[in-house]
Specification:
It contains eleven helices and twelve strands. It is α/β, with parallel strands linked by helices.
Length: about 300
């Protein structure tokens, strides 16, 4: 997914000289080609996320479309005040792009978990929030960033899924049709959901899987239409409270629908282990997703 992002970004930058990239002392083996092609539009600002956000705001005032790039919690939570006051308050054309979604850097521990970023970013005025599940969505989101004249947040996971389903801008997109349960997914946990659905189909449970790459704006119309036929919804995300489950619950609070969320609990701060281990702990592995849905 990260490779798709950088390749698409380079193609966009070839056509649009206003694209400018700031990185927070990472992105090595990722941005070398961009830096060599566009040396006047690339700065490594070092481990200084607050400064990076301030610089991005200044460049945006001068007409640039600016990307700030770092690990998920670094360029969101560490500089939250600067994003809120310098970028969102003034509705500037700054794109916050993060890698390491969820437990991607699990062995580094809680300091490197990106499990509150969606919740934090969706709080802010003018901010769009994107969490692609496949490389196809990643390509669309990257191109879309430079057509949106507003702050945007993009979280990148480790997915290499290449799925040929129709992707509509800012919409919830159906990955697999089904009639018994609607499973809404955001981010790179989609592959586990697809495999779990195959096990459920063997038990006679028909699962509709839909990918929610756009969390803000959120496709309320899709959900309202879908619940006319399906009365059970499960959300799956490698993120804590305040993300997809919270959005769906807020949207359907007055509707007669059962909603169950699979998400990361706050006690994740106690652990440091591989992404697979952390997913299993919070029922985000294939078997965990299968068990939670079949018992719903």
């Amino acid at each position: 997914m990260r490779k798709t992002f950088i390749n698409t970004l380079i193609e966009c930058a070839k056509k649009d000289e206003s694209i400018f990239v700031l990185v927070g002392d990472l992105g090595f083996s990722v941005f070398e080609e961009f830096a060599s092609l566009f040396p006047d539009r690339y700065i490594n600002v070092g481990v200084a996320e607050q400064n990076m956000t301030g610089i991005a705001a200044g460049l945006s005032h001068e007409g640039y479309k600016v990307i700030t790039y770092s690990i998920g919690n670094f360029n969101t939570l560490r500089c939250f005040e600067q994003i809120r006051n310098d970028v969102c308050y003034h509705n500037l054309n700054v794109k916050i792009v993060s890698v390491g979604a969820g437990f991607s850097y699990g062995t580094a521990g809680y300091t490197h978990f990106a499990i509150e970023d969606i919740a934090a970013m969706r709080l802010l005025p003018n901010m769009r929030v994107y969490s692609p599940s496949t490389i196809n969505e990643m390509e669309i989101v990257t191109n879309q960033l430079f057509t949106e004249n507003s702050p945007c947040y993009v979280r990148i996971g480790s997915s290499a899924l290449n799925l040929n389903y129709g992707i509509k801008k800012d919409k919830i997109n159906i990955v697999k049709e089904g009639k018994d349960i609607l499973v809404l997914v955001t981010g790179n946990i989609l592959s586990n959901v697809i495999k779990a659905s195959e096990l459920l189909e063997e038990r006679g449970i028909s699962v509709c899987i839909a990918s929610v790459y756009s969390l803000e704006p959120f496709d309320t119309d899709f959900l309202k239409e879908k619940i006319k036929d399906i009365k059970k919804i499960v959300t799956v995300e490698e993120h804590g409270i305040g993300g997809l489950y919270s959005i769906v619950s807020e949207t359907l609070i007055n509707d007669n629908v059962k909603v169950k969320g699979l998400y990361v609990l706050k006690d994740a701060c106690k652990y440091a282990d591989s992404q697979n281990y952390m997913r299993e702990r919070y029922n985000l592995d294939i078997n965990g997703i299968y068990r939670c849905i079949i018992n719903f």
